Structure formats: structure tokens, C-alpha cells
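If your schedule permits, I should be very grateful for your opinion on a structural question. Kindly check, if you would, that the fold set down in the C-alpha cells agrees with what the sequence suggests. Thank you for your consideration; the sequence and its C-alpha cells are set out here:
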Amino acid sequence: MVEQVEERIENQFYLIDKPLTWTSFDVVRKLKNLGRFKKIGHAGTLDPLASGLLIICVGKHTKKIDYFQSLPKTYTGTLVLGKTTPSVDLETAFDQEYSIDHITIEKIKEVIQQRLLGEIKQIPPIYSAIKLDGKRLYTHARQGVTADELQIKIREAIIYRFEIETTNFPEIEFEIECSKGTYIRSMVRDLGEFLDSGAYLKKLVRTKIGDYAVDKAQSIESFNKENYATLSES
């Protein structure tokens, strides 16, 4: 019976609510120590300044990582028009300021409808974990290399839903449902450019991965390896 319980706990996946400033690898490393897991990995990176749902796969369930990564993702957050940063979030300092006098909510919705829904193409942010020439893009960026100097490959993504509202313009609250491989910071950057202005990401939370929701996730502080999620038999 003890062996059966150990097997059940070791070969599972866990829904974790990643806190701000932690990297996804920080979470994996912490849980590996807490659970004394031999084999562990995460199914989809979250930036340090993003919080929300992170799926941690353990033991035999690491074979399910590709499956989890393939599921659609849902994010909520806040973007701000009129300013930019090199990282497109608050990891780096503001570098440019733009006019927003010509921007209306109707214009934002029009741009989203025409250019940021359905199948889109995007260039990942230079402050991202993609490898280029053997180094992470953020390593190039921190060494002073600009995005124009790097040949970052264009990526394809599908945006199923991009809804906005605002009560404190130029801050825009949003909810985005998208495919695997979507860079929300790229969407924010591109929206600013399409509006002949600029934009940065102030807040980002991943609320869902497929049907798995952050409100069912454990915090790292309260992590208990016996509170596991289970896959269906199908």
C-alpha cells in the first residue's frame, strides 16, 4: 500500500499559482526539493513579472508536458499606452514616450479586430528565454545587443479572443485567449505600434491552461504533494 501511494504521488501533475518575481525554473527547483521528486518539469514558461497558473509535471507525467503546452491559454492583465520599455514590461526602465491624444477605445478595438485576432505573426520580445546562437535572447539583450541586430524568427500564433475595457485610460484591462507559443508582450508591443504610439505591459496573470484554472492551484507556501491533480483515462 505504501508503495502504491508513493507511486501515485510521484507520477502526477500539480497546479501551482506562480508568484511574482519567481522564474518558472525557480518554482520547479523549489518543488523538487519540497517533494523530493526525482523527475520534474514545467509545461509552459511564465515571465518573472507574470503570475498565475503553472503546471508542474512529475515522474512519468513529464511525458505529458507537450500535451499541456499544446492547450490554449487564457491571460488577464493591464497594458499602458504611451510609453515603452526595452523588455515591454517593467523589468527595464522606460525608454520612449509617445502621444496618445489620437487614440480612442473604438480605435483600439478596431485595430485588435483587424490585426490581432485569428492567425497572426509575431516576433518574440528580445527579453525572452528563446535561444539564439546558443544563448537566451535576454542574455543578448542584457549585453546591449538590440532587437534590430538579432535575426529573431517570426512566430505564428492564434488569438481566439482579445477583449478590453478601461476605467483609467491610458491603462487598458484585457483578457486574451490564445494558442501555444503566443507572446503577450509582443501583442502589447505590436498594439502600441499599430496605434502609432507605444505600449508596455503593467500586469499579467495566466488564469487558465485548457480547462485547468488558477483558482484550483496551490501556492508554493501551501504546497502539499498529496494534493495532486489527475488526468482522465482517455
